[in-house]
Amino acid sequence: MMRRRKRWGCLAVILLFTIVAAVFGLHWAWKYYGLPEWPDRREYKTIEERAEKALAFACRHNMNEHYALFVDYGIPSGTPRLFVWDFHQKKIVASTYVMHGPGGGSTAERPVFSNKPGSECSSLGRFLVTKEHGNRLKRSFRIKGMDMDNQSAYARGLMIHKSGWVDSHCWMRYIPLHRASCQGCVTISSRGMNYLWSLVNKEKKSLLLWSFVSKQS
């Protein structure tokens, strides 16, 4: 009888440990790979401040009036910093991680921006997200610069695409630079790309992407 009780006691401990481990694992997976991948902060004033101007710009250029994408490079890369904004609900509905390009003396902590071909730098400003794909990265969206200082984006081959490097290092405060994964493109997590792949392809009008640097990092 005593042996049976000890056996059941051990099984209960193992079961409890398994449940705790599963809950922790699911929490970790959701934090780093789920969507929405919410950043630590709960307020997104920098996005809200740009939403009205973004909608006016989208209307003026016959772009999507339901959703827009924002990338805030002022946020550390180990925190989700691409935001999907819903103009109808007037809120962020999803977010994901973005790494920046290694060119121009960029570091993981401080990106350097450029529109120059061959710079391997990320670029700022407003872009049109096309449904065209890269030659090697079929699951991607090429982007066209809509401002005077980012008009070479399409010729540079800049696009939104995923990278396993982002998936493997998004738990760090700053995602290490990796030239093979990002040469100035909007390089995001795999789960983030799955979300955008569905969203962009189902929308008839092209989405606006607005990249900027806030002062909150």
What does this structure look like?
This protein is globular. The chain has a 9-stranded mixed beta sheet, with helices on both faces. 39% of the residues are buried. Helix 4 links the parallel strand 7 and strand 8. The protein is of the alpha+beta class and 217 residues long. 33% of the residues lie in helices and 20% in strands. It has 5 helices and 9 strands; from the N terminus they run H-H-E-E-E-E-E-E-H-E-H-E-H-E.
* Percent in helix: 25-40%
Neighbour order of strands in the largest sheet: 3-2-1-9-5-6-7-8-4
**Would you tell me the structural class of the helices and strands?**
alpha+beta
Rg calc: 21 Å
What overall geometry do the principal axes of the alpha carbons give? globular
Mean pLDDT score, rounded?
86
Number of strands: 9
Termini gap: 62 Å
The major sheet is characterized as: 9 strands, mixed
Number of helices: 5
Fraction in beta strands: 15-25%
Low-confidence segments, ≥5 residues, pLDDT <50?
30-34
Spell out the helices and strands N to C: HHEEEEEEHEHEHE
Highlighted features:
33% helix, alpha+beta, 217 residues, 9 strands, 5 helices
Brief sketch in words of this structure:
With 217 residues, the chain is α+β, with helices and mostly antiparallel strands. It has helices spanning 2-33, 45-60, 153-156, 164-169, 190-202; strands spanning 67-72, 82-86, 91-96, 98-99, 125-129, 140-145, 159-162, 186-188, 207-212.
